[in-house]
Amino acid sequence: MKRIYLNENEKDFIIERKEKKYKFPKLILIMRSELYRGMFLSVTEDKSNKVTDYSELSNKSFQILEYWIYSNQIKDEIQITQEIIDEIEIGIDYFQLNQTNPNLIDLLINKFNNQN
């Protein structure tokens, strides 16, 4: 999945947050998100590149979600707070992310507990 994500030619969907745009491969979003799976695979849905705005997440929380979506990991240098865990739980619900192993919330809680 990481190879697909890092290939710029595969990034055919934009998620817009505040003033920044993030490019994602539709294939990864279809595999990881019920929201996008329904959008992209629906026969009645417009198949054009859509822009989704989800600005309630902080930049840090969105970057954690973005990295986890294609790597199943959290970057080592990220400091986890309870606020980030709470935001990401909302983001998981919003994007209807599939909680495959490793579960993102479990990773965040473990990292948070190990920091303290």
TrEMBL record:
InterPro entries: BTB/POZ_dom, SKP1/BTB/POZ_sf
Residues annotated as domain BTB: 11-78
Pfam families assigned to the protein according to its UniProt record, in alphabetical order: BTB
Domain of life assignment: Eukaryota
SUPFAM superfamilies in the record: POZ domain
Name of the protein in its database record: Kelch repeat and btb domain-containing protein
Taxonomic path: Eukaryota, Metamonada, Anaeramoebidae, Anaeramoeba
